[in-house]
Description:
- The strands form 3 sheets. This protein has a 6-stranded mixed β-sheet. A 5-stranded mixed β-sheet has the order 7-8-9-12-13, with no helix packed on it.
- By secondary structure, it is of the alpha/beta class.
- The model has no long low-confidence stretch (mean pLDDT 93).
- 44% of the residues are buried.
- The chain has one domain: 4-Layer Sandwich (Metallo-beta-lactamase, Chain A), CATH 3.60.15.10.
- The protein contains 6 helices and 13 strands.
- The protein is globular, with a radius of gyration of 16 Å.
Amino acid sequence: MTLLITPITPPLPLGMGSVNCYLLRAGEGYVLVDTGAPNAWVSLHKNLESLGCEPGKLNLILITHGDFDHTGNAAHLRHAFGGRIGMHADDSRMAEVGDMFANRSRPNAILRALIPKLIGFGRAERFAPDVLLEDGSALAEYGLDALVVGIPGHSKGSIGFLTADGDFFCGDLLENTKQPGLGSLMDDRRAALASMARLRGLNIRRIYPGHGAPFSMDQLTVT
Length: 223
């Protein structure tokens, strides 16, 4: 049976664009890939319920990496819907202390102080993951025939999810804002290129990025 994938595209604050979340049908329940920024909580909640994902039906909240626009509603979702949160240990500190630079090269102090205020990521949005995922982790116990793929580069703990149908959820390693390609913001470009090279050896049919429309593997370019 083909996996039912429903994109949800909540806006970012201050007109900074949008980010993708993906609701996946998983047996009798659902799995959500990424959660948007905190400003989108009300619309995300309504979207999930309108799609049939009611409290008690969210099996797992998958986090591709620790940036605020992907983790922003995870704590609220866990409380309201009962879903467990899964992410890689290397990015977990970002969510636990509210610092998206916790395992990255440090920006200037002003930028580091301003970003959480602009995004709205406060103490209520912080969390510790319930499930620590790593390369090769299977998601079958949550009703999803998929494996975790480690894809460091955008962040040290970036992970993707590859389904048995060849659908790949890549977070911000890849994007499609102008054309399919490597994401515009990489903490470690060498690691990112190695991750991209690895993807070419996997059975990927379609890529679902954190930003921009889905695309096929043969559309992927490196700039």
